[in-house]
Design goal:
mainly alpha; elongated; about 60 residues; 2 helices
Length: about 60
Amino acid sequence: MSPDFFTPGSVRSADDVNEQIRALWLRAGGSLSATERAEYELLVVEWAAAIRGGIVEAA
């Protein structure tokens, strides 16, 4: 697994994760391989967690 993949306790911002998602789609040319799809799914989970964390902090 790539070191760029989500790891529990990650503190990256939603913006940082979103940028990585965008870069993945650009590299893939709009069509993800099975490996890229797995990376994408982990990034989306990390992004959602970062968004939730930002909402809790704002409250």
